[in-house]
Amino acid sequence: MPGLSGRMSTIVKAKISKLLDRAEDPSETLEYSYQKQIELLQNVKKGIADVVTSKKRLQLQEEQLKGQVVKLDTQARQALAAGQEDLARTALERKNVAQTELQSLDSQIAELEQQQEQMTASEQKLRTKIEQFRSKKEVIKAQYSAAEAQVRISEAATGVGEEMADVGLAMQRALDKTENMRARADAVQELEAAGTFTDLTALGPGEDDIDRQLKQLSSSTEVDAELEKMKAELGSGAPASAGELGSGSAQASRPEADA
Amino acid sequence: MIVRIATEGQYELLESDEDVLGELDNQAVAGCDAGDEEMFHAAFARLLDYVRTNGRPMPEDQLEASDLILPPPDTSLEEAKAEFTGEGLIPG
Asked: CA B83, CA A11: separation in Å to the nearest integer?
């Protein structure tokens, strides 16, 4: 079949025969396959550990970003209270960027969680198949004549070879995704360190100019809205505090009135 | 016939399913050749769906080679175009 499935089948078969050709004597194929299976199982374990490490790293970054958001919010309030609206706006813009980044981190962490689950399931499946292969191997060695054993060996080896190819493929894809996330997380951290936090939006995946402009537009609208809200909060607090200051004498005289 | 969805698992289908699979497969390839992302994903999803709904999942303790292997469900158009060449199917 010349379609996608045909091409995929051909590639997997080529990989399997390449794998099995390394053992020249057919009876060696069994031991060789088994040894390869055990190796792959170890690799899958390492792969899972790798995914967990990446996840922990992103979680740490998430904590840091949450701290940033709180800090920038506080700074914006302080700036506004001191009458420095421009400074407050800058702080809010950065807070906005940090929040967007937080959302993306959130979904990346969720994806890694899913990868971890998938790989753990793959490991379990491979373990079952290896166990199956191991018992089949012993039966073949004990019960069959050389000629028949050869046929059965090649059947079992092909079956397990395909499973190995598949687990290998699943793991490769999971690790590639993890690698991409890690690269992006590193880039984000570098930008943070360089203080060019506002450029973070430029890292968005596959955005074109229109996306970016729309995002800027909505983010500046959000910043405006937040600034107004903050002003209103400070504003409603301001007369009160001004009143407190202004009516200092009145307050001071209150105890007298009470007395 | 045994069909594997790569990275997912094996399913047992009827021999008579082969024609339908071939047809769905051709549609996915057509989308791929046309470079039409939407068409490719829709056709590929129909193909996977057919296998999952009409096939019986193979027990995990069976060791059998597949007659047909479908690319992983999260295959991108770019990957499909590249025909899954290059390394990565079996590490080492």
From this structure: 9
